Backbone:
């Protein structure tokens, strides 16, 4: 959209371009209400903000979704009432009579969703695979006679099912070529995994080699490599930072990172997802102004980002967390 001053408005930012005496262009751009010069090597350099678009669900879809959950919850309470009075058989695990005086292992409502909602659609998950998990794989057919509480196998194999939920990112699980020889040699030398944390099972030479490679790639002095898991993020972040420290966290970080940041006691500030301008502004303000009220420098500044962001989590794993530590 053009304006009367000869500039252009894009995403709410005003860009003005005017000719200089040497023929080069100088540009002004508005960022956070401040007009800044944008020129690099005599050529205009326009900073375009990264805008990520998420399609909003239509109102009727949201209404029917919540309505479906509401109806399912009401029927769940009805079925629990029928089970308590013996009208319907209860297939869920229950505590024994002689243990009624003990503290219950779980509250009854904690299993409500599994018992009444998930069990109705349980067959969509945990399907037994009987081939390599490539783009297509084979599954064992199974049926249930008690509404998915138990399954029995028919002996039939369902061929060439499309794989839409695999961690086989590199395709190595379904590839049999010369590269698998290297995999075989590594398995023979190191086994299928260390099976636990490094302080319990020891540090391998590959751990040190990987840390050196990561540090070199990030152009930093050193790096730490952890086996991925929910506790890795939630427990190790408090060991890195604490009170008087600042955490700059991506707005779409996983719950394990959010929990670890909260447990640390450090001050948390959120920047827009994958937006370097937003991160840079927060980082500049943190370095210039320091801590609130006292204006003292932060003890440490920790930037939390992920290598792979997901909207649906099936297991807590295979996510690459990048921790950047800034110390005064």
Residues:
């Amino acid at each position: 959209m053009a304006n009367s001053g000869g500039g252009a408005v894009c995403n709410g930012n005003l860009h003005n371009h005017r000719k200089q005496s040497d023929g080069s262009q100088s540009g002004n751009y508005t960022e956070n209400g401040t007009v800044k010069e944008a020129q690099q090597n005599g050529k205009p350099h326009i900073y375009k903000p990264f805008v990520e678009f998420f399609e909003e669900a239509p109102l009727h879809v949201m209404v029917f979704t919540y309505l479906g959950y509401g109806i399912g919850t009401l029927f769940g309470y009805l079925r629990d009432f029928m089970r308590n009075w013996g009208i319907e058989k209860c297939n869920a695990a229950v505590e024994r009579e002689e243990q009624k005086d003990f503290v219950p292992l779980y509250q009854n409502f904690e299993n409500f969703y599994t018992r009444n909602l998930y069990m109705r659609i349980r067959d969509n998950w945990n399907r037994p695979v009987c081939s390599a998990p490539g783009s297509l794989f084979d599954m064992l057919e199974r049926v249930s006679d008690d509404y998915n509480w138990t399954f029995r196998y028919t002996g039939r194999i369902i061929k060439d099912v499309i794989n839409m939920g695999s961690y086989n990112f590199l395709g190595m699980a379904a590839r049999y070529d010369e590269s698998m020889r290297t995999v075989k040699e590594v398995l023979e030398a190191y086994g299928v995994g260390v099976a636990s944390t490094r302080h319990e099972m020891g540090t391998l030479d590959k751990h040190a080699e990987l840390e050196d490679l990561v540090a070199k790639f990030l152009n930093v002095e050193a790096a730490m490599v952890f086996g991925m898991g929910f506790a890795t993020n939630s427990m190790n972040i408090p060991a890195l930072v604490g009170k008087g420290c600042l955490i700059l966290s991506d707005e779409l970080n996983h719950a394990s990172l959010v929990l670890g940041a909260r447990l640390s006691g450090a001050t948390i500030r959120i920047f827009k997802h994958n937006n370097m301008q937003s991160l840079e502004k927060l980082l500049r303000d943190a370095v210039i102004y320091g801590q609130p009220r006292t204006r003292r420098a932060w003890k440490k500044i920790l930037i939390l980002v992920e290598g792979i962001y997901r909207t649906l989590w099936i297991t807590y794993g295979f996510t690459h967390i990048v921790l950047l530590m800034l110390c005064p």
In short: The CA atoms of residues 133 and 166 lie 7 Å apart.
